[in-house]
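Mods, move this if it's the wrong board.
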Amino acid sequence: MAMASVVKVVLGSIAFAVFWVLAVFPAVPFLPIGRTAGALLGAMLMVIFRVLTPDQAYAAIDLPILGLLFGTMVVSIYLERADMFKYLGKLLLWKTQGAKDLLCRICLISAISSALFTNDTSCVFLTEFVLKVAKQHNLPPHPFLLALASSANIGSAATPIGNPQNLVIAVQSKIPFGKFVIGILSAMLVGIFVNALILLCMFWRLLSVLKDEEDPAGEVVVEEDVSSHRFSPATLSHSASLNSQELNFRLDTTDVKSSPNFSGNIDNVETLRNRLPSSDNEINNVHSGALDSARNSIASKEGTLDVSSQKREETILSEGAASNNRLRDACPTESLEEKENLTTRWKRLLWKSGVYLVTIGMLIALLMGLNMSWCAITAALALVVLDFTDARPSLEKVSYSLLIFFCGMFITVEGFNKTGIPSALWDFMEPYAHIDHATGIAVLALTILVLSNLASNVPTVLLLGARVAASAAAISAAEEKKAWLLLAWVSTVAGNLSLLGSAANLIVCEQARQAPYLAYTLSFWSHLKFGVPSTLLVTAIGLTLIR
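Not the wrong board. Structure tokens:
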């Protein structure tokens, strides 16, 4: 494509520069409006500067990509409601053998979940769980957060639905889902292994420090959960036995209390006898008066005790009978509640099974080569109908800002292409980037790696995709497919180079920083120390395995 007029080149470059600055630095001080608004601003400037006409701007929006992105987001939302990510979290802790084993599990589970549910979604739901596991086991969260983010990026390269740039490549290249997976799967598996090996080598000493004791807070939580679970089902039987025991205890107590009082009165009489004066008159007077009064008091108290103890026995028996009647009346109610809870659990289980079956059906349809956008949208609507409730709460969780960002980015990148600058740069690079030579593949990979970190991976794919494919198609159809897969692999793994290289890295960083009671800051430089060697090695090894 020939260069446009100087005015269009300058104005188009300004519009693209505005988009690039706000996309890479969304909180820039002089215009902190964010990525989505920055993409819309760049698109609007392309139209205002007459680099594109309004019709060309509308035509630049790729609806199949938006449909595929929307469908996969809805499916991920319903999978999250069906506890898919909770089960993945439990899988991390199942028979774990220490810190190194946990690190390798995080790498594997993050990669697999990202390939199926997109890397951003996996990072959103797994970051806080990884922080909790690290805290419970007294482990530093740094290596585990790096494992989560980097493995999510590598794993997402294996499928067209793993990340946004793969969506673009799959739609533009028309490579079937199955062939896409087969072409990159071996590179992804070896890449995960190499990435985990690098993490183990860098943090071996840190992960080898054995903790002396478990986190006490974690143990308390576990014990409380077990205790509540253990005693709550036995509330009814425990209450019944308690009432009968209390009844017997009260009866025994009443008998014990009555006998000492009686013996106490007899002792009083004996005391009076021992204290009688020696004179006969006093003896007769005191003996007759005191003995008669003692006998009268004993008789009256015996009668009072008999009446009071009888009343107490009757009251306690009546209370016991009433409590037993109340328990009998409560039994049908509690059994009804148990039946309702059982019915609710069965409905929940059937619904979750339906969600998993619909998701598996979508993956099978994609492997059969059906239209990816409509497969994802059909699966999303099937889950909405299966839920049989108002879909608004679930649909509100869709990242519509991301969809709007893509619309603005499509228009902005198309306008920048119209200036002729990307074509001129590719014309300069093409003689050195032939895909049928090892040096050409190295130059192409290095170019994609640098551009993906400077301009972000999705704009890089939009700028270079068609040109790289056209250059490879001149050699053979097989080389064209390989060029698309190389572009997918390098642009995705390039996200591990720095903290700003991919959205997944930023999600892990922000989620970790804002996690309540578990906050941890993953710095740019600490990520870069790991990101540079990991990205270069994983990219180089993967390039030799892509077919």
